[in-house]
Design brief:
Blueprint: H1 3-31, H2 38-53, H3 57-64, H4 84-98, E1 104-106, H5 111-124, E2 138-141, E3 148-151, H6 158-178, H7 185-199, E4 201-202, H8 211-217, E5 219-220, H9 222-235, E6 240-247, E7 253-261, E8 264-268, H10 270-273, H11 301-307, E9 308-310, H12 326-329, E10 333-334, H13 339-351, E11 356-361, H14 364-376, H15 380-391, E12 399-403, E13 408-412
Parallel strand pairs: 4-5, 10-11
Antiparallel strand pairs: 1-3, 2-3, 6-7, 6-9, 7-8, 11-13, 12-13
Helix pairs in contact: 1-2, 4-5, 6-8, 7-9, 8-9, 13-15
């Protein structure tokens, strides 16, 4: 007997067995009272269908499982953008990763779909730090079958995870203590932004892509910073989205956040807030000049988007408001340029004890006029004289910094 004949006989036997099973189901249904036993019938029919479809019973069970639409403590913005089948697969990936399963079934098999869903899980869940995005992910597909096995690469040992989890809780406790009593969402976001800048060093390492790098090693790059912002803000109940994108004029990517404050969307980029390289000369390394760069806390969207563009893999909310910009809130943003206005503002800041005076403009024209007089023309010397009189100094040294892309000028005394 040839191979084809054997195959046909096996198929015929399989169909016969299924027919017997289904016939038995019908007989039982007609001869026995199965009221309240509908799940038994459904299970038998599902088993028969699984055999006919040629897929494992585990996959059939996954297809029939209810898909949770929420996950406590997480906004899951990217989950909301997926269709029903993709959301089911999302839950399958999340459950498998949380259980640290070496391999598990997914009810989707297309490469691009699985990649997209996997990315959505990673962006929504910074707390699953042990599935490092530099580890290899393997997927096994089956011919003409719409399911696959998924094998993610895990980074840390159980002992390391215990250390990291403790570091996460320590950071959470520290941040909670820093948030002022009765603080609104803006103050909470500002506190998280400042805490991460003060406690993280921008360094490339094997841990730099996740919150483990931030909270455990105190070192990370943009992916780690953005994940940490999201992790902390979600624990405070503040909606926060992790965003990946491109940098103008560069082949390197970048990661940042979009947060919701007062019903409006704002950019938050803690990574750039931790980059004081714009300061002139050796000002950046002087201990007395240490200051938080708030320019990337709710920056003007039009200015930020000149440099950073979100990936087109997923749509993200449009940021349009400037109301929560640091300079707007502190009366340090000017729509037009006037020498006396800037001079009076600088004096006011010094009167309040500031050692750092900073101000910005809402447009390029006003900024360029200010730059011409206050940087190129040296008008800051008038403010320096006022500072000397205020503190009875015979001489002082000052430094300046400029963020041309955000129309900002800094003076440090």
């Amino acid at each position: 007997m040839g191979k084809n004949a054997k195959k046909k006989n096996r198929i015929g036997l399989l169909l016969l067995l299924l027919a017997v099973v289904l016939a038995g189901c019908i007989f039982l249904r007609d001869s026995i009272d199965l009221s309240g036993k509908a799940e038994v019938m459904e299970g038998l029919v599902s088993a028969a269908q699984a055999v006919l479809n040629g897929e494992p019973s585990e996959v059939t069970a996954l297809r029939e499982a209810e898909v949770a639409q929420t996950d406590e403590g997480h906004q899951e913005y990217y989950f909301s953008l997926l269709n029903e089948d993709e959301q089911r697969c999302y839950r399958e990936i999340l459950a498998g990763v949380r259980a640290r399963e070496e391999s598990f079934y997914l009810t989707v098999s297309d490469d691009s779909s699985v990649d997209r869903i996997y990315h959505a899980v990673l962006k929504d869940h910074p707390e699953i730090y042990w599935i490092h995005n530099r580890e290899m992910v393997y997927k096994t597909t089956y011919s003409d079958r719409d399911y696959c096995t998924f094998s993610p690469g895990y980074t840390y040992t159980e002992a390391e995870m215990a250390e990291i989890d403790q570091a996460l809780e320590n950071a959470w406790t520290e941040v909670q203590a820093l948030v002022p009593e009765g603080a609104d969402d803006y103050e909470t976001v500002k506190t998280v932004y400042t805490y991460l800048i003060d406690n993280t060093e921008y360094v490339s390492s094997e841990h730099d892509q996740s919150i483990a790098g931030v909270f455990w090693q105190k070192q990370a790059v943009c992916a780690g910073y953005a994940g940490a912002v999201q992790y902390l803000l979600e624990r405070f109940g503040i909606p926060c989205i992790y965003v990946e994108g491109d940098v103008a004029g560069s082949t390197e990517g970048h990661a940042w956040n979009i947060v919701t404050i007062g019903g409006e969307y704002y950019y938050v980029d803690a990574t750039n807030g931790d980059q004081p390289d714009f300061l002139e000369g050796d000002a950046a390394i002087l201990a007395e000049h240490k200051t938080t760069i708030y320019d990337y806390l709710c920056p003007f969207p039009a200015e930020y988007e000149v440099t950073y563009t979100a990936s087109d893999e997923f749509a993200v909310p449009a940021c349009t408001s400037t109301a929560m910009n640091f300079y707007v809130l502190n009366q340090g943003c000017f729509d037009t340029y006037d020498w006396q206005t800037i001079y009076d503002y600088c004096k006011m800041r010094l009167d309040y004890g500031a050692a750092v005076v900073r101000f910005k403009f809402s447009n390029a024209e006003a900024f360029e006029q200010a730059y011409s007089e206050w940087i190129s023309g040296g008008s800051v010397q008038e403010v320096a004289k006022y500072y000397m009189q205020l503190y009875n100094y015979s001489q002082i040294e000052y430094h300046y910094g400029v963020l041309e892309n955000l129309y900002t000028i800094y003076y440090m005394f």
